[in-house]
Structures
1.
Amino acid sequence: MVRKITLSLLFILLAASTSLAQWNNVGGKWAFTNDRPDTIRGQIHGLAVDPDGKIWTQPWATINVPTTPGDTVKAVYALRVFNPDGTEASFSPVYKITTGGGFIEDTLYGSVISNPRGLRTDHEGNILAIWGKQTMYRINYKTGEGMNKVELGLGTSPAAPAVDAQGRIYVAPVVPGNPIQIYNPDFTFVGNAVEQTSGFARTVVVSKDGNTIYHCGYSNGYITVFQRPNVFSSYDSVGTILNGFHSETAEWDPKSGLLYASAGSFNDKAEFGYSNNTFYGYDIVNKAIVDSFKWVFNVPANSAERFRGMGFSPDGNKAYAGIFGTGGFPIIQQWHRVLDPVEVTLNVDMTVQITEGLFNPATGKVSVAGSFNGYDVNATVMTDPDGDKIYSAKIAGIEPGTRLFFKYASNGNLEDALTFPNNGNRELVVTSGNNKALAYFNDYLGAGINVNFTFRCDMELEILKGNFNPSTDILSVRGSFNNYAKTDVLTATANPNIYELVLPIQVKVDDVLTYRYGYATTSADVVETDKVYTVKQEDVTNASVIVTRGFNGIKRVDVTEQEVTLLFQLNMKKAINDVTKQAFESIQNVVIAGDALPLRWPGAGWPSEDNNKVKFLNDNGENGDMFRQDSIWGVTLKFPLYTVMNFKYKYGANWGLPSNGGSNDNESSTGVLHVMTLNKGIQSATVFDTWADMSPAKLDSIVADVREISNYAPSSYSLDQNYPNPFNPTTNIRFALQKANKVTLKVYNILGQEVATLLNEFKNAGVYEVNFDASKLSSGVYVYSITTGDFASFKKMMLIK
C-alpha cells in the first residue's frame, strides 16, 4: 500500500467541483398528481420537514384570500404544507394561526407581519416560523394550529432559527452587529449567546447539546463557530469552518449526522473551487467534507436561484431544498439517497508502534472492533500482506449514510488515548463512493509528521499602494520553523496578486507556529507583525493545510475604494470617568484614538507625551463641532483610500490634566472599544457616539460614492429607475443634470421618514450615478427623491433581503 502520512481518519474527500453519487436529484419528478408545483413557483424563504415527512414551505409572496366569511379579499402570507407524495396537507395553506394557549388568532397579513424569514423543526417535530417584524410562532405539525408566539427583541430582521435537543431556540440576525439570542422551549427569553455577529446571515445551526453554534455569515465566505464548555459558561468564537462557503442555508442530516450547507449561488459565489449549485456534507467530528448533492438550475448560472431552506426526511434518505429569487419556475427540488450496500476499507498505520518496540509484527495481532461487529475485538482481524506496516480490513454490506464507530486493537488491547466525542470511538460516514480510512494507532506520532503547509498571501493592496513591485521585490515567509530566514520565497500564481509556497513542516497536533510575511525591496525590508497558527487535528489528518490571508491580514475586499470623511459627534453630557467612577467636574478636552489612519493608538497606558498620536475634538462651534458649548464635541477626519472598513476606536477626556482621574484612557475598561463598520461606497458620514456607550458606531447623513458617467450637459433633467430592482443590499441610482447646481438626493421609507442622504452638494451639468447601500435597512418599499433648482422627482424601489 502506498503510504500517506495522516493522524486520524483519512477520508477520500470529494473534490470541491464534483459530487459523489450518493444522491439522485429527482427535481422535476416530484410525485405531484395535479398542478401543485405551480402553486409554489416563485420564491421561498424557509423549508422544514416534520416527523411525518411533510414538507413545510414559507413562500415569499402573498396570496389573496377572504380572511373571514364575507370579508374582502386581503393579501396574506401563507405556509404551504405538502405530504411526502406531493399532495397538499389537509390544513394547508396556513395563514391563520389559532390556539387556545395564550393567543386567539393571528392572520398573517402581508402589511402587518412583514416578510417571511425562515422555518425550522423543533425538538418535538413542531414547526418554528419567523417573520420579518420579529414574530416567531410554534405551529403543531399535525394540525397546523398555533402553540406559542413571541415578539423577538433582535432590533433587526431575524434569520431562520436553530434548535438543540433540549428544545432551546437560537435566533440570529440577518444584519451584522446584532446578537444571537436564546429562548427556552416555552419561548421565554434566556439571554444573548453572542453579542455581535459578523456578516449577513440567513440561517444559524446548533449542536444537539447546544454548546456549539454555527453562524452562517454568507457575506463573510465562511461559517463562524462559537463554543462553550457547558450551559453555565459563555460562548467564545473558536474559529471558522467551510472557508469559501457563502452559505444561506444549512441543516443536519438525521441519518449520517453530517452538517449540509450550500456553498454559494451565482449571486454570492462560492470560492476555492466549490460549486455554486452544490450542498456539501461536512463531518464535524473529522472536520472534512465527505458528501454532496447538486441543485439543477432552472436557468443556467441563474443569480436569482439562491438557496433559502433545506431539510431531510425523518429517515435521512430524502433531502429537500428551496430557492429565493425571481419566480416563474419550480423552486423546490428533492434528492433520494442511493442505498446500495458498499464496502469500507479500514487501515491502521503501525509504523511508530513497531519502530518504538510497542508492537512485534512477527507475533502480534491487529484487529478492529466497532458498531459493525458488536465491538468484538476478535471478530475482524487486520492484515499487512505487502509488509508496509499498514494493516487493513474490509467491511462489506454497509448502507450509505451510515455512521460507523470503531477502534483499532493491538494484541487485543483497544486504543485508549483517543479524544473523540463518542466514547473515544473513531467515526466514518459511509458514502456510495470509495470509503477508506487511515490512522496511526492510538494517534501516536512520536516526534511528529511532515505536513505540507501552503502559505498563500494576497498582495493586491500592497501592489495597488505602490509598496510592492512584483518585478523586483521578493516575498518570503519567515517563522519559527525556518529560524526566520528569508529563503522560503513565495511566487506568483495564475492570479498575479496571489503568492504561494508549499513548505513541508514536521508538526504534531496543537503545535504553535509563529510566522510572518516580509518582502525585500531595493531599499528596505518590509515585514508584518508576527502571526500564529495552531496545528489542528484535520491539518495532520490530511497531511496538508492552507494558510491564506492578505498581507498584514487585509485584502482588497476589506477596504474602501475612496477617501472617506467622517464627522465624529460625541455626547459628553453627564459623562462618567471610568477610572474614578465619578462624573467629570468639567470637560476641558476630548481626544479620539484608533487603529485606522489618521487615527493611531498611543503607547501602553496612554502616556501624555503621546498627544501627537491622538486627535482632539472641539466644542467651540468650529472644526467639525456643530454648536458651541453644547457638550457635543466634534471633529472631522479624512480617512485615506484603502482604509479598512472595520476598525476600532476610543475616546479620552482631559488628556494630560490632573482632572483625568489618573489616566488618559478613561472612557471604559481597558480593551473595550467602539467598532466602526463602513461600506464600499461611502464617501462621508456623521458618526454619533455617546461617551462610554460602546455599542457599534451609529452613522447618519451617509453620502455614497458618486460617479460621473458623462460631463456633457444633457438636454433635460431626469431621475432614472434604480437598478437592480428589487435589490439586496446595494443598488445604483442614475440622474441627469441639465445645469450646474446644488443637488440633494434622499431616501425615505414608506412612512415618509428619511433614512439616508445620498448626495447634498454642488454638481456640474452631466450624468451621474450613486450607489446606495441598504444593508442596515429592513426589507420593504422605499422612495428616493432628487431636488435641484426647479427640478424635483421621485421613484420607488424595493429592498428584498
2.
Amino acid sequence: MKKSLHIDLEKLLGTTIERKQVSITPSIKMSNGQISYFSNQLDEAILQEFDGLFGFINMIDFKLKSKRIIPLHIEQADLHIFYLIEGRSSILINDLRTKKSIDISPLRGRYFYLPKGEYELILPEGRTAICNFYFRCSIFRNGNERPFQFLHALIDAHRNNNPTSSWSIDFRVGPRTTAHIQHLLIKLKKGDLDTEKHILHELNELIKLSNEKVFEEYHKLSGSILKAREARDLIIQYVDQHGQNFSISSIAENTQISHDYLNEIFHQYYEQSASAFKYDLLEEKVKSLLLEGISVVNVAYSCGYTESSRLCKFFKKRTGLTPTEFITKSKNN
C-alpha cells in the first residue's frame, strides 16, 4: 500500500542516527519492518514501519522532555486506527485546515477518516507509544460493513471523498487488543504472500474486537456517562477553537441537557465541574502559546479575550504569575 502518512520526526529531532545513540527500546518490536532512530539530546523517538498490500503500519515510541508537536502530512485519504498503548496523558490530533482536534487517552483507541492535508500530533512529556494502522477502505464491500455501525460515518466519508476529517467514538485498548497488535507486528515478513493474509486477518480481528469494545462500553452504559463524555469532548474542541469565548450553558444546550445536570454528571465521572475542566484546558493553552514565543496580545486574541489585560488577570489568578514572569521563569528553568 502506498505510504500516505508522513510523520515529520526530523523537524523536531533531526536526521536519523544509529541504534546505540538512543536509550529507549521499542515497546513492541516489529519483525522485518523499516526502523529509524532519532535523538536531539533532549528527546528520543523510534519509528517502525511496514508497507503491506492491505495496510501500512507505524509503531512509534517517544521519550520527550516536555510537550511536543509533530507535523503530519497526508497525501491521500485513508481510514486510520490510532492506539495509544502507553502514555502519561492524552495525545491530540489537530486538523490544521478545519482547526478541529480530537484526543486519544492512554490505553484507548480511535478510528479516523483523514483526507489529504496537514495535521499535527501533540504529545505529552515522558514515554509515549502509538500504533497507527491505515488501510484500504475497499475491504468494506457488498454490505460487510453493516455490523460495524460505529464506522459507518467514516466509511461513507471515504466513499464520498469528503474533504473534512472525522473520527469514531473511542474504545478501550485492553490485553486482548494489545496481544493482537503484538501478534500482527511479530509475524511480518517482506515479500511473503502469507504476510498479506496475516495482515488482512489481523486487521479483520482488530476491527471486530473494536466493535465488541464499543458495544460493551457504550451500549451497556447509562445515558449519563455518554452525555458526560460528549460534553467533555465538546469542551476540548471549543477551548481549542474559541479559547474562553464560550459558555458551559452552550455545551449543555448542544448536548441537550440542563446546565445543572451537566455539572452533576461531570462531577460524578470526572470529579470536577465542567467550568473547572474548561479553565484547566485554557490555562494549558495559554502556557503553550506563550512558550512558542507568541506575544501576550496575540495569545489573548487566540484565547478569545478582547483585551490582553483580561488574559493577564486570568493567568495571574491561576498561576500566581504574569505571562511575562511565566516566560522568564520558564527560560531560567
3.
Amino acid sequence: MGELTHTMRQQLMDRRGFVRFAAAGLAMGGVALLQACAPAAPTVAPTAAPSNPTPAPAKPNSAPTTAAAAPTAAQVQKPAATAAVSRTVKLPTRFPVEGIKPDLPASADGLIDAAFVNYPASPIKTVQETPGRGGEVNVTTWTTSAAPTPLDSNALWQAVNKELGVDLKINVQPQADYATVKLPTLIAGNELPDILYIAINSVIPGLPTFLKSKCADLTPYLSGDAVKDYPNLANFPALSWTQVIYNNAIYGVPVPYPLYLWVHWVHQNLLDEEGLARPKNADEYKKLGQHFTRPEQNLAGMGVENNVGMGVTNGWLTGIFGAPNIWGLDEKTGKLTATVETEQFRAAVGYARDLWTAGIFHPNAMQYNLVSARSDFAARRFAFRFDGFQSASVTFWDNSVNLEPPGKPRIMTPFPATDGGKPTYWANSGFLGYSVIKQAPPERIKEMLRILNWLAAPMGSQEFLLMNYGLKDVHWTPDEKGNPILNARGKADALVPFRYITQGPVALYYTRDPQYASVMQDAEKAMFPYVAINPTDGFYSPTKDSKYPGLQRDLSDKLNDIVVGRQQFSYLDQVIKEWLDGGGSQMRTEFEREIAAARG
C-alpha cells in the first residue's frame, strides 16, 4: 500500500530520474503509482497536456455548464526500466527511522504519511549523543504564527538548547515579507547566520551563484550512503532532496512536507443529511453548488478568496479539467507547455465564469482573503472550498464541534470534468523550503548537520515531543490516553519555529478525534493516483525568481475580471499572451535548458 513502483522509486534518486518521473508518472497524474491505495482509480493513465494548445471554447462570453472533456493528447513516454545518470551528484539514500510504530504506517517511499491516533507511550530517542560542541549557533527563519516567548523566559526553547549542546539563537521573522524583502536584504548585506532558511517563494537574484559562493556544499556529507551519519535526515523522502540540487551539488537540508498542500474540502454532513452523493463530474458539482446556495440560511455553494483567479490558478477548477500543474512536460521532446496555453485551462476559466453567473460562489469572493474565507468555511457558510491540508484540517475539526448540527469536514477525491475524463491533483513538490549552512571548516559543517539531524527527529520520538510540546507538567499534561495536551504556557513557548529550520516527515495526528488519522490518510491515498507535480520544481529560472510572483498576481486579477463578468471571455487570449510575453516564454526557455542538461 502506498508505494511507488521500484523503477519510479529508483529514478527519484537522481535528477534525470525525477524529470522523467514527473513527466511520465506524476506530472500528468499517472495511476501506475498507487492503484492499491485507491481501488476506484481509473485503469488508464491520464493524458498529457497538449503540446500545441487547442482553441478556447467556442462561446466567447460564457462557457457551457459542462465543458468538453479534456483533450486527448499524445501519451508521454513511460519511464524506462533504468535511467542513465547524467549528473555526478547522487541524492541521499533513504533509510527510514526504525523503532517508531504509528497506528497507520507510512508508505515505504514516504509519500503517504504515517498517522497516529495517540502519541506513542514510549517515544524513542533518535539521537544518542549531544550534537553540538558548545557556543552559539545563529539561525534566521520565518514564522507563520505569533512570535514565541523569548529565549530567556522560554523553558521549552532552553530545554531544546540543552539537548542540542549549543545556544541556538533564532532570529524569527514574520512570514509576510520574509521571502521578498527580509531574506534578500540579509543576503545582500553579506552577514549570513550559521543556518539560513530559504522559503519556497524566495526572491534571490542569482541563487546558484549565491549558494556556490556563500553556502556549504553538502554533497560530501549527504550524498548517497554518506547521509547515514545523520539518520533523521536519511529518513526524508527522496522527493524532498530533488529540490536542493544546484550547481550539480546538494546545497541545503529540506523541510519535508506532504505532497498534499491544498485540497478540496466539503461539509460532508450537508450531503449526508439529504442522502446526496459527492459529485462525479463538473455538471454534478455545479448542481450541488446550486442546491446548497441558500442566501436565507447564509449558505453558499462554494467559497474562494480573491487572489487565486476564482479557483483557477491554485489547481482547484483547473484540476477538474486535467490541466498540468503550472507546466506540462513532453518526455519525448523535453518541451514545456504552460498550463495557461492548454484547452483544459480555458475550459476551467469558462467553468468558473459559469459558476459565478449561477450565483454559486459566495458573494464576498472579491473581498475574501485566505484567513477570512477559511474562517467562513469553518463556520459552514459554504459547502465546498479548496483550502490547506494539515493546518486547515485542524481549524475545521476544531470548529466542527461548535456547529449545530456538528460538522463533518472531509476531503474530496479528484473528479473529472466529464465521465471518463482525467483530473489532476496539483501536488506540492515535497518540501516547504530548505536551510543552507554558511561556508565553514568541515568540522563546523558537520556540527550544523548534527543539529539539523536532531531537529529532524520524526513524530513518535522524544526529540519531537520536546520541540512541539515541551516539558511534562510544565507545558503539557497527558490526557486519558497519554496524548500531550498543551497548557497556556505550553501554547506560547511552543511557537518556536523549529519546523522552519527543518523537520521530520510530517505525520497525521489530532488528539480530539480518533477518526482523524484514518480519514486523512485515506484522503491521501485517494488523491495520490492523480498527483501532478510541477516538472520545473527543483530547476532554476532567473526570470521566475524576478517575475513570477508579479505575473501570477496579474493573472489572478485578470481572471477575476473575466469570471465575474467585468471582461468578456475573449479577453482571455490577451491575458495569456501578456503572461507569456511578460516572462512566461522566457521562463520556459530557461527551464527547458536546465531540464535538457539533467536529461543528458
4.
Amino acid sequence: MAQNYQSSYQGQKNIAQSYKFNEKFEDSEEIDDDEISQHEMKVKDMQNRVSAAGNQKYNLGLNGNQDNFYSKNGGNQNQQNMGNSSYTNGIQQSINIYNQNKNKMNDTPSKINDIQINLNHSTSEKPSAICLIQFHQDSNRMELGSRAIEILEKYSDHKICFVSIVGLYRSGKSALLNKLLDIRSGEGFKVDDSVNACTMGIWMWSNPQYNENDDLYIFFIDTEGLQSVEQTQDHDIKIFTLTMLISSFFIYNSKGVIDETSISQLGLVTKLTKNIAVNEYGDKMDEYMLAQYTPKFLWILRDFSLELQDQKGRRISANQYLENCLMEDGNTKVQQSKNVRKAILSYFKDRSCLTMVKPISEEDKLKIMDRLQLEDLRSEFQKQIIALRALIFQKCTPKMFNGQYLNGRMMISMIETFINNINHKEGIPNIQSAWENIVQNECILGHQVGLQQFESQMKTLLENRETAVDFMELYTNFRAIRDNVLEKYDSIAGIREKNQYYHQYRMELINHMESREQQAFEQNEEIASTQNDLLIQDLTKGLNEKFVLKKFNHKNINEYISEFNEQLINHFLFMRLFSQLNKQISIDFQASMISMQQE
C-alpha cells in the first residue's frame, strides 16, 4: 500500500514541478540552460517510465479513467494499478506541460518578429533618434520638437503609446534601448563612454513598432538621466513627472539588487502628487486620482547575478522579489524609504520586475557595448532582451486619458499643454487643462473638416446650375449633406462626453450651413424668377408682334382686346400663384430650420 501511495504521490510531484517550471515562464523569469537540460533529462526518464507502464497487462493507461479497469488479483492489484496510473498520469501531464513550455520558448523570437512590423517600407526616411521635448537651459523652458510633431501627426488616425525608460544618468538606459530595438552602433540613441550625461531632455525613436494584434503603434523614448551634476532636483522632477504622464509603459532602470539605496533613488515618486495639478485652481492630486493616470511600471535590475530567493531560501520570481522588497518597510527606520515604497504600491497598480545579467563578461568591453551587435553579447542577455520585448508587447496598451484612447494628434495636444503648464503655471502639469485642450482641438478640427466637406458637396450640387430646382428636391439634398457633415463632425469631435466645446463648435457649423442654405434658396428663387420673366415674355411675344406689325385695326380691335385680356389674366394668375408658392416655400424653410435646431 505504501508503495502504491508513493507512486501516486510521485506522479503528483511531477505535475507540481512542471507547473512550477510553467510559472517561471509566465512570470518571464530567467531560466538558464542548465536548468533546461536538467528538466529535459527528467522528461526523458518520465517518457521511459510511461512507455514501461504502458506495457503492463493491467495498466490503467494514460487516460486517467480510474473507474474502468480490470484486475485478476482483486483489490490489492487494483490499488497497485491505481497507484501506477496516478504516477504515469502525473508523468504524462508533466511531459505535456514541459512540451508546451518548450514550444513557447522556441516560438518566442518568431512571435516577436511577427509582431514587430516596422514602418520602413512606408517611408523613405532613415529612422533616427529625434528630440521629443527639448530643454533650453538658458531660459529654463521646455519645447515640443517640431520634427516630433511632424511624425506624431502622421498617426492622427491611429492609436499610439509611449514606452519610456528612466533612471540615473550613466546607468545604460540608452544602450539598453538600442539593443531592445536592435539598432546598429552609432545610429540609435546617443551613448557615450565618458562620465558625463549624454541625453538631454526627452528623445524619441522616429520609427514606431507596430503591434498588429492590437493595431497599436509603439514609440520608444529615452530620457535625460536623473541626479546628474549638471541639473537640479527641480529639473529631474519635471522630466520624471512629464515622462510618467505621457507614457503607457514606464521602465525604471537601475543596477544591482533592490536595497535602501536603490529605493531612495526613486524618491521622486513621492513628489508626484505635489507636482501635478488637478484643475485650473491648482488643486493637487491624491493617491487614488494619480493612480488613474500612471502607466504600467517595470523595474529592470541590470547586472544582476544573485539567485532570487525568499527569506526561507525558496526560489521566487522577479515579480515576487519586487513585491517582497516593497513590503519590507517595517525593516527600515528611514522614513523616506517607507514613503517611496508606499508611493510605488499606491501609484503603480500594474508593476513588474525583470532581472538582466551583465551583457558581456569582459569588463574592458563594457565601455564599448553599444558598438557590439546583440549576437556578440552573452546568450543569457540575448534571451533576456527577447523576454523584455515580449513583455513590452504583451503589456503595452494605447495611451488612455480620461477614458479616451489617444491618437498622435491628441498626444501632441496633451504634451503641448503639459509643457505650457510647466513653463508658465507654477511649473507643474495640469490634468484638466490638458484634457480641455485635447477636447477643444478635436472640436476645432471637426469644425474645419465639416466646413470643408460641406462647401465641397454644396459646390458639386449647385455648380453651373442654370435652371431652378424644385424646393423639396433642394431641401432633401441639403438635409442629406447636413447629416453627412454632422456625422463627420461627431466622428472627430464627439470625444466620450458631449462637452461645452462640442456644442459650441457644432452650433457654429450648423449656423454656417443654415446661412449657406438660405443663400442657395434665394439664388434658386432668383433663377426661378428669371425663368418666369422669360416665360411671360414668351407668352406675350406673339401678341406684341401682331401689334407692332399692325395686324389689328378698327375692324378687329375687339379681337385684339380679347386676346390681350386673356394674356393679361394668365399673367396675373401665374404671378399670384408664384407669389403664393414663394410664401409657402419661405414658411416651410423656416419651419425646417427650427426643426433641425431642436434636433
